[in-house]
Amino acid sequence: MFFLQVVYNGTGPFPAGEYRAKVKEMFNFAYDSYMKNAFPKDELKPLTCEGTNNYGGYALTLIDLLDTLVIFNQTDDFRTGVKWVIENVDFMADLNVSVFESTIRILGGLLSAHFLCIDPHLQLYPGYEGELLQKARDLADR
């Protein structure tokens, strides 16, 4: 509890801005490592730095972190990721997948990225026509 109070109040050994910078640095390390060593596989194995497809081979990590890219103001990476998902992700496969992971990470990631794309104030993906919502519906129906 003390740690949360220190981070929230910014009264710890580092000012709150330094915590934000450290969190962004850590996110970028993980994101860059995934993109370099595992993409378009689902996940990065941390010890071997290899990709693995344990959840259907849908680039699950990319889909899951699209909204986080927006939080960190990495809109070019967001656009690139959305474009890749629109062009490459297809759920027309007879696979044994984790319903929980598919729901929380893939369906949730598609829906959050869709709502970010349609937000008129953000204008993150010009020309977006609801493709992520269509993919989310397809997945949910399956």
Distinctive features:
mainly alpha, 6 helices, 142 residues, two-stranded antiparallel ribbon, 61% helix, 3% strand
Q: How would you characterize this protein structure?
A:
With 142 residues, this protein is mostly helical. It has one domain (2-141). It has six helices and two strands, in the order H-H-E-E-H-H-H-H. The chain has a two-stranded antiparallel sheet with strand order 1-2. The longest helix is centred in the N-terminal third of the chain and has 22 residues, at 16-37. The model is unreliable at 1-5 (pLDDT under 50).
Secondary-structure element pattern, one letter each: HHEEHHHH
Cα-atom radius of gyration: 17 Å
- Assign a percent range to the helix content: 55-70%
Please give the domain count: 1
Overall pLDDT, averaged?
90
Roughly how many Å apart are the termini?
Answer: 42 Å
Record field, number of beta strands: 2
Unreliable runs, pLDDT <50, ≥5 residues? 1-5
- The global form is globular
Largest sheet: 2 strands, antiparallel
Describe the strand arrangement of the main beta sheet, using strand numbers. 1-2
Structural class of the secondary structure composition?
mainly alpha
- Beta-strand portion reads under 5%
Tally of contiguous helical segments: 6
